[in-house]
Amino acid sequence: MEDLPPRHSHQGARKRGAGRLIRNLLLVVAIGAGAFVVAGLAYGDPRLVGLLDVRIGPGAGQPGATGGAQPPAEGRPDAPPPGLEEADAPLATPEQPPFASDSYRFLAENSDGTPVGYSPCRPLHYVINNDLVPADAQHLIPEAINTVSLATGIRFIYDGATTEQPSGQRAPYQPDSYGDRWAPLLISWTTPEAAPQLKGKVIGTGGSTHFSYDDGPKTFVTGSLELDAPQITEELRQPDGKLYATAVILHELGHVMGLEHVDDPRQLMFPEIGTPEGLAVGDLNGLHELGKAHCRKDL
């Protein structure tokens, strides 16, 4: 059995715009043989949000003779055949940050201290549920994804619109919906009624599922990002609304890729967005490190 280190919600908020406050919450929940780490950005008075610790069972494979992980047994229902679209080397090189900074943290790390991230050797497919996308906001997600792709070297592929609804127990492998591969990253313009994690003042949540074999290294295989469409619609009515909406999306994509909150208020991964200046140098250094994850032909 493997323990996922507990994550704590951040208390405290500061003013932004017309006296608006932003806080952040953090939850951890279990999905399948991996773990799903979710972070949410919210407006309103700060409150302590319950934290769920999880224990994760062994992965699908058994250790090989040399200690390496082997692919899931044939016909295993919770994982696809391994190595789909996995190249021998990273598909792109992340942009070098303008200068070094250690103002970043990771949501999860392997036993050797390396951060848990997506394999840079295969594309990360994503779909968008656009049913409730605010007017003139269709471009916000592709632009934010391009920014994160440049910072990490991860190549994203848009698979189109989806009718899939967000779920707190989303399966990382859905062959009936997406074929014999890991399910794509699901990005949803939604409501608290459809995504209960958005209840209250939460404006967005994002996280990824990591998968491992027994005591082997973990790698993210899919994720989800939920945006509160009514709240962001209101935000977009502000003079600087698109800048702040983009900041929310980038913040949640940072969590999807594997970034944790930091105590440095100059970074976008600070739990409260004070200025909509996008990714700061600490964020960029963290994303650059996440782009150095190992290829995983066994997943």
Q: What features would you describe in this structure?
A:
With 299 residues, this protein is an alpha/beta fold. It has one domain: 3-Layer(aba) Sandwich (Collagenase (Catalytic Domain)), CATH 3.40.390.10. The protein is built from five helices and twelve strands. It has an eight-stranded mixed beta sheet. A two-stranded antiparallel sheet has the order 1-5. β7, α1 (140-152) and β8 (156-161) form a beta-alpha-beta unit. α1 packs across α4 and α3 (229-236) packs antiparallel against α4 (241-257). The radius of gyration is 18 Å and the shape is globular. Mean pLDDT is 79; it is low at 1-73.
Number of domains: 1
Low-pLDDT residue intervals, each spanning 5 or more residues: 1-73
Query: Strand arrangement, largest sheet?
Result: 2-3-4-10-11-9-7-8
CATH hierarchy class name: Alpha Beta
Q: Number of helical runs?
A: 5
How do the helices and strands follow one another from N- to C-terminus? EEEEEEEHEHEEEHHEH
- Mind telling me which CATH architecture this is? 3-Layer(aba) Sandwich
Summarize the structure.
This protein is an alpha/beta fold. 17% of the residues lie in helices and 23% in strands. Strand 10 (202-211) and strand 11 form a beta hairpin.
Which terms summarize this structure?
23% strand, alpha/beta, 5 helices, 8-stranded mixed beta sheet, disordered N terminus, 12 strands, 299 residues, globular, single chain, Collagenase (Catalytic Domain)
